[in-house]
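Case 522 in the screening queue. Each case pairs one protein sequence with one candidate compound; here the compound is ME8. For every case the pipeline is the same: read the inputs, emit a complex structure as tokens, and attach any notable structural observations.

Predict complex for case 522.
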Amino acid sequence: MKTCYVTTPIYYASGKVHIGNSYSTIVCDVFARYHRMKGFDTFFLTGMDEHGLKIETAAKNKGIEPQTFVDSIAKETSDLWKNLNITNDDFIRTSEERHIKVVQAIFERLIQNGDIYLGQYEGDYCVPCEAFFTKTQLNSDGTCPDCGRPTIKVKEEGYFLRLTKYADPLLKYIKEHPTFIQPETRKNEVVSFIEQGLEDLCVSRTSFKWGIPVLSNPKHVVYVWIDALSNYLSALGYLSNDETPYQKYWVNGDRVIHVVGKDILRFHAIYWPIMLMALEVPIRFELIAHGWVMVKEGKMSKSKGNVVYPMDVARRYGLDAMRLYLVKEMSLGNDGIFTYDRFIEKFNVDLANDLGNLVSRSISMMNKYVQGTVRKSTFTNEFSQDVECVIGEVVLGFQKAFDAFEFQDGLELVWNLIHRANKYIDETLPWGLAKNPEKMAELETVLYHLYEVIRIVALMISPVMPDTATIIYDELGLNGRFLTTEDMMYGVIDEAQVTQKPIVLFKRLDLEEEFKNLASDV
Ligand code: ME8
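Case 522 output:
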């Protein structure tokens, strides 16, 4: 059986996860669910990044131990994932023993083979971003190039990872593996960053305590990126000699995908493969870098009070509608925008009008004209043939897109099929056929084609809208059957009995009304 290992970034345990961070997790969930449908043995990892100065300071401000602080955020975050229907197989936390052991072993190994050495660090450090910057990387006024806030000067003894030694092998690797960094524009950014010249990276700190101590020199704690990046191996049981998930999903795995936001691209595209080269661990992963979810005013920020939380949207409009909006409206490589007016507009068009309407009018015609029993029929006509053709093309394109993490393109195709089916109803006029007993075979064929379109649409949207897909499947009388990607083709079902009572899947929203409600809730 083929394997798929997909990971989200591990989230800083410093605050509440918003709709932007949730985007990373939702797209990974879509990928994992899709691969399970394809029959891949899939391992989906997410977790928490729990060390560092920022977290130590936040805990101190609350008057509690850092461990107590991160425990409560980890619980809140893993509960959120359950509520968002995320199907992660594991939840790694960097304060766990299984992770600490791996990081300490990795660090010692890199000291022993000379890829980490002790030196003097002098530089500019951004506390909120937990990142050091060279003079050339800082903004002209000396502020942080990532967040724009002031940096502080730091001078201390520190361990360094030899990035310089691996710059050429890394460039070679990137050139030889065209899908290593996606999309292409992000790859070009990384290549030009490396070509400008890398500097060795400071990977330990002595100025705070909340981190993993370096075993051979415990006054140092491991600086956050070696700690954080190692989660992708520690969760797989990297150190053990047994038949571990590490062997299965990493060393011998078929697909390994790390999904990251564009702001942490550099760490994953440069530091991480270099760490792996230094450890002699094969680089098995492909990196997908996505853009940011923005709001009307630009970036979400607590101080501006414009942060959108996923459960607020999901409670109001349904979880699946929110998941669909994020996956369908965001083009992976670019920034996307979340606004309630756009969300409501898309809800009405994509869900209430297109999908909801197709399902409800088709099922009620099946009940009205053939007592809910749909059968494959041999009768055909040009419209039906065209629908079969469109199904074939859409499924092919959909699978190609979903394999390549291009969910927006895949879903665009699904909606093309929905439009085609709605048009098919207008072309064939089943209510007219029903009036003429001689047209019974034609009517049966139309209803069967509609049935097959709805079934295949439900299957294709199931990684994104799992609850909706289950409801539609139940309405089609298929509970729990025909659920793999192989069932995504016309003609799979011979006969079926649909529900007599279809529910309204998505009720049209009134924009004005919704804005009144939203305003009164704030
Ligand atoms: O960076 N839209 O954690 P984090 C889309 N601990 N994605 C967004 C976003 C937005 N508005 N805001 C943040 C970290 N993100 C590290 C990762 S991995 C070994 C360590 C994304 O909690 C961001 O790009 O700050 C990143 O991919 C993820 O949320 C976690 O961010």
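Case 522 observations:
- The pocket of ME8 is lined by residues 9-12, 20-21, 23-24, 49, 228-229, 231, 260-261, 263-264, 292-293, 300 (CB under 6 Å).
- The chain has two domains: 3-290, 340-497.
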